[in-house]
Amino acid sequence: MKLLHTADLQLGLKLHFLPPETAARMRSLRFATLRRIAELARQEQVDCVLIAGDVLEDNALKADTLQQATDALACFDGIPVIMIPGNHDAGTADSALARLELPKGVVLATRRESIAVGDAAVYPCPLMRRHEMDDPTAWLPARQPGEGIRIAMAHGGVINFAQNADSETPNLIDANAIVAKGFDYVAMGDWHGTFRYNDRVWYSGAHEATRHKEVDPGNVLLVEIAAPGAVPVVTPVPVASARWISRAIEFTDDAQVEELGAWFGALPERSHTLVALSLSGALTLGARDALDVLLADNAERLAYLRHDAHKVFAQPTEADLAAMNGESFMAAALARLQGSADDAAPDALRLMYRLQQEAANASV
Q1: Whole-structure pTM value
Q2: Which residues pair with 281 in a beta bridge?
């Protein structure tokens, strides 16, 4: 059996931290990437596609977003798709998944009963409430003699893996117990990065990242199971369109500003790239000014740029100070700024330097 495993699509994701136009573009990418998953499923001739929860961002989505989801799911035409509710789109009375006009071949599994896929059986474990205090996989039956390939689908944190898990942590799953019942593969959702818990239990991760802190998002899993009891062969396949990049730089040399500019310039598809920079260190006044210009330029080119350049201090050289000491009023202002403990003094010093440079250039 060959299948594709994905989860945490969160179609309609809000992305409140982005400018409205950028957020809309990133939301559109999530639908486009789902279409690309359909192309991959067709190319690989899989027997089915499993979406292990959080298909939608929440249950408050409006008709336009639901229609986009329906249209994207329709691209799987001819390939069986099984999806379950997760904590974002739980199968409650106001379920947005229940309002989808499901294309032919797409099954929303809200009942705890097996679904036949050829000679194999898929056992869905839907979340019918946002927070389930009982293990949603506890109902899964043990293997019986003569049964074929068995696959479980679930959404939640695995016991011994969920951070700070305790008896009151919702949606906890005993993955070891599932494997002990004779399941060949457990398709998990909830963790947004691709993660192997053991040979038979995998989180696919989200097809598109939702924030910078996620580890290894943007994949789907191609899973091949040769026979009942065989160890699955699991291959992560990158599918994401957007790139979320985090980088830390401590400036100790002015040349690093030029290096950062070259790094920005080498990024492919900057309009689909979201960058978070953690900056520190010190630069000369000219380099510090150049850094501001570089960051402002790339903030317009990238889908998103977050940085903390205020932590990069300006250290004027003797030449910088000499250039600003030419006029008596500048000398007085310079002396005052150098002796000031005001938090705004470094910015004022840089502005003073910039104005002096502009005046010098204008006189040439």
Answers
A1: 0.85
A2: 251, 312
Query: How many CA within 13 A on the CB side of residue 243?
Result: 12
Question: What is the mean pLDDT of the segment spanning 85-93?
Answer: 95
How many angstroms separate the CA atoms of 15 and 336, rounded? 44
Give residue-wise pLDDT tens across range 254-304: 999 999 999 999 999 999 999 999 999 999 988 999 999 999 999 999 999
Count Cβ atoms within 10 A of the Cβ of residue 99 and give its class: 0-12 exposed, 13-18 middle, 19 or more buried.
middle
Please give the Cα distance from 328 to 351 (Å, whole number). Answer: 17
Q: Within 10 A of 159 (CB to CB), how many other CB atoms are there?
A: 15
Identify the CATH homologous superfamily for domain 2-238: Metallo-dependent phosphatases (3.60.21.10)
Contact partners, residue 268, CB within 8 Å, separation at least 6:
243
Examine the pLDDT at 356 and tell me if it is beyond 50: yes
Domains of the chain, residue spans: 2-238, 243-362
List Cβ neighbours of 37 (8 Å cut-off, separation of 6 or more).
Answer: 4, 6, 49, 207, 220, 239
